[in-house]
Structures are given as C-alpha cells and as structure tokens.
Design goal:
The chain is mainly alpha-helical. The chain has a domain of 60 residues: Mitochondrial Import Receptor Subunit Tom20, Chain A. It is 65% helix and 0% strand.
Length: 102
Amino acid sequence: MFKFRKKLLQFLLSAHRLFSLEKKMSITSDEVNFLVYRYLLESGFQHSAFTFGLESHVHQTSINGTMVPPGALISVLQKGLQYVEAEVSITEVSFYPMNFKI
C-alpha cells in the first residue's frame, strides 16, 4: 500500500510540474495536442507533425515547449495506465473484509 501511495504522489507531482496544474487534475485539448505534436516530431514523423501542428494550431498556444520533457506523451499515458491499474486493485481489495483469508 505504501508503494502505491508513493507512486501516486510521484505521478501527481510530475503532472503538476509538467502542466503547471494548480488544484486541478485535468488536461486541456491544447495540452493533449501539444503532446501529440511533440510525440510525432520525436518519433521522426515530420510531415505528420507539420500537418497536425497546422490543423491543431499548436503554435498559437501558450505552452512553453522547453518545460515539457522529451517523451512526455508516453510518460503521461504510462502513468495514467498505472493509476487505472491501482484504482482497479484498490476497488478489488475493498470488496473483502480486512480479516478475510484465502
């Protein structure tokens, strides 16, 4: 249980640092678009990134790209999956009494 809390805290802190979130756990469409744009660039899909950047107006956002670490989209997705897995685990555990033995 301690490891889960530690990982959850690390996730929340990294999300806060990544998007400068203040008292909210959400992500805007501009932030998602920027992460996808950066992923396309980092993966070598320059033409797709160019087209996506034009259509999503990613250059008109106020996101400071220097504050977003490389691989941020994959990191956010992995942490989100870990959170969902932890949430499912907690839900499964909560159905059983504390003194239940198999």
